[in-house]
Model the fold of this input.
Amino acid sequence: MQLSTKTEEQLRIVSVREERIDAAVALEFKDAMRVQTEDGPHTVVLDLSEVQFIDSSGLGAIVASMKTLGAERKMALAGLTPTVERVFQLTRMDSVFSVFSTVDGALAELR
Done:
């Protein structure tokens, strides 16, 4: 699972460098997210702009990653492709996460 991370001011940006988050990589994704977010700023922005497909296991891995942050930290999503955004809408997870069209939009709003 390829993730890249950068920190800007009070935000940690984690970009997924894969086209899929599915059952085959869900556990690896959760582990990588834990490592990338175990310390650092209060807010994590998960950049999903390269992800073209997500299944229920992938969705569960993202939710688990959010829960791993704990109650005092939060996760926002950015750059959802239409297919991925539809999964979040159908499962109503778009009401659980703050969702932004772009990473820049998330940064502007969350700073």
